[in-house]
Amino acid sequence: MRLKKSFIAAAVAIAATAIAVPLQAAEPPNIRVLATGGTIAGAQASATDYGYKSGAYDVNSLLSAVPNLDKLAVITGEQVANIGSQDMNDEVWLKLAKRVNGVLAEPGTDGVLITHGTDTMEETGYFLTLVTSSTKPVVMVGSMRPATAISADGPGNIYNGVAVVTNPGATGKGTLVVLNDEIHYARNVVKTNTTTVQTFVSINRGPAGVVNTGKIQWFEPMDRKVGPATGFSVDALDKLPRVDVIYAHANMSADLIDAAIKNGAQGLVIAGVGDGNMTTPALDALTRAAKEGIVVVRSTRLPSGVVLRNNEVNDDEKGFVASGELNPAKSRVLLQLALTQTKDPIRIQKMFYEY
Ligand code: ASP
Fold first, then answer.
1. Atom of ligand 1 nearest to the CA of 142
2. Per-residue burial over 208-220, b = 16 or more CB atoms within 10 Å of its CB, e = otherwise
3. Which of 36, 50, 54 to mutate to test the pocket of ligand 1 (most atoms within 8 A of CB)?
4. Is the CB of 266 under 6 A from ligand 1?
5. Is ligand 1 within 6 A of the CB of residue 154?
6. CA–CA dist 43, 54 (Å, integer)
């Protein structure tokens, strides 16, 4: 069969165009690593030494210890702090949150990975969940063994963390925590063991997913307001309101409650016994405090469960807030941010229901 000349000319033209415009390989994602210290950057005097110092290595040393990271993304690192996370404070939180927002606002950046100590990761992670102004992925990683340890867990956690940040499923979920092959919502996760690598657990809910050598499976969706949906902003903040946590126990007196108020606490979180309970003297002191405009949140010292409103304590009558699922440390974070907007316990209770 003979082809018409015009058809052949057209076919040649198409072929030429195809050659002139080579197939575009998908651009690798651009990820920024913000390092803050922790055991993941920790060093022992020798690999079998028991003691170690957190935050001894910088971000570039951490990244260079992870094989094949460059196959997942183009990664640039920045040191925001280099501390054990037991020293985490409002100043570093605000600096970190502003940096996360600044980096994610860059059109060329696809996500942020934060290296962080595990002691207060659940607090920083929840703080970032509430104040991040972008829906791009934010993932935190840490480790339970220092960088110099036999079988250090940091490099594997960083590899999995980068895999999660570059996964489209991580978008709009709030800050995620990746450790020991599990993915958790920072809002839900708590550290449960002092030293073992299986320490992070989403107690009331189960993990958000799992990740094995970079291969991800998502389980539960995030059902709370996160990121821009919360309406919180750190832009104009250079400090946070003081909120103290007070631990309830048998024979609890009002002394620590009075001391916290005297020292300027604008909010108090009670790590209550059972369903957020406490002794009568403590309850009376908090009732007085609430009348004076201190916002009181009842949480629990128990590892699991929901603190219910108006159960054994009449929160409506006393003007208290019930923490729901949030443990005392996370309740403190939400109350600090809530107090940047309102002192109304009804509005703050709504935040505890929704965030
Ligand atoms: N104390 C350390 C920290 O939180 C523990 C760790 O990172 O695992 O910085």
1. 7
2. bbbbeebebebeb
3. 54
4. no
5. no
6. 7
How far is ligand 1, taken at its centre, from the CA of residue 311, in Å?
37
- In order along its 355 residues, the chain shows pLDDT tens digits of 444 444 444 444 444 444 444 455 678 999 999 999 999 999 988 888 888 888 889 999 999 999 999 999 999 999 999 999 999 999 999 999 999 999 999 999 999 999 999 999 999 999 999 999 999 999 999 999 999 999 999 999 999 999 999 999 999 999 999 999 999 999 999 999 999 999 999 999 999 999 999 999 999 899 999 999 999 999 999 999 999 999 999 999 999 999 999 999 999 999 999 999 999 999 999 999 999 999 999 999 999 999 999 999 999 999 999 999 999 999 999 999 999 999 999 999 999 999 9
Which two three-digit tokens encode residue 351?
């935040």
Supply the residues annotated as catalytic. Answer: 39
